Amino acid sequence: MISLCTLSSFILFLLLACTYTPENIEKEIYLDKAEIGIISQKGDTSYALEIPNNENFKLFIKTSPREFKDSLEYSWFKKDSLLSNKSVFSYTHKKSLIPDSVTLNDKFGNALGLSFKIILNSPPKITKILSPAEGDTLIGDQNTPFLFSWNAFDADGDTLQFFIEKDSILFPVGMWDYAHLTHFSEGSHKFRIIANDLYNSADTSLWIHFYVKEQ
Predict the structure, then answer these.
(1) What pLDDT is stored for residue 17 in this prediction?
(2) Taking the domains of the chain in order of start, what are their residue ranges?
């Protein structure tokens, strides 16, 4: 005859056996999201995927959760051509193609594909302010058209769009590298030039201070 105490111990053993989970059973975790980043030749990191022309760079994947980073299989493609299976893609100017997609595969058989475009673009450069120069005194009144002129350069040959910021007012100039402005009161003023390229990369000159003296 089984005692009540023995029966209770046996039932407790069965309950513990049913609820026991071996530690080696692996829980499946899904890749939540991934983002492509770019490392410049100088070591700067960006997710804008724009890099100056004629420069080497590296592409990497930022994953969430982070622990996926070292367990994924990577496939970098240019259209349908496989370029690399490394986690970081290294681009050497004029010696390799630039990928436009990457496929991530985890150990559970899940796959995630990302398409992207790398923009090779060198920002414009305002090389010189010609007129007025720093500290110039312009003679005239509010109806006198004063000449503002400058030199600028774009390594990619992009058509540039210019702006003059006079005191606190912004004037669009278009493609011209000069403009005539009026309505200056007597006294001190300042201006600077802003140049934008086709990708909205910009260069802004230093403030130039000048004076207007009425005749």
Answers:
(1) 41
(2) 33-120, 125-213
Distance CA 104, CA 60 (A): 12
Round to whole Å and give the CA distance between 208 and 190.
Answer: 5
In the CATH hierarchy, which fold is given to the domain comprising 33-120?
Immunoglobulin-like (2.60.40)
Task: Give me the pLDDT at residue 27, please.
Answer: 53
> Are the C-beta atoms of 65 and 132 separated by less than 8 Å?
no
Angle, vertex CA 151, rays to CA 52 and CA 154, nearest 5? 20
- For 20-68, write each residue's pLDDT tens digit: 444 444 455 567 788 999 999 889 999 989 888 888 999 999 987 776 6
- Classify domain 125-213 by CATH number: 2.60.40.10
Q: Alpha-carbon distance 185 to 189, whole Å?
A: 9
Confidence of residue 199 (pLDDT cuts 50, 70, 90): confident
b or e along 82-106 (b: 16 or more beta carbons within 10 Å of the residue's beta carbon)?
ebbeeeebebeeeeeebbebbebbb
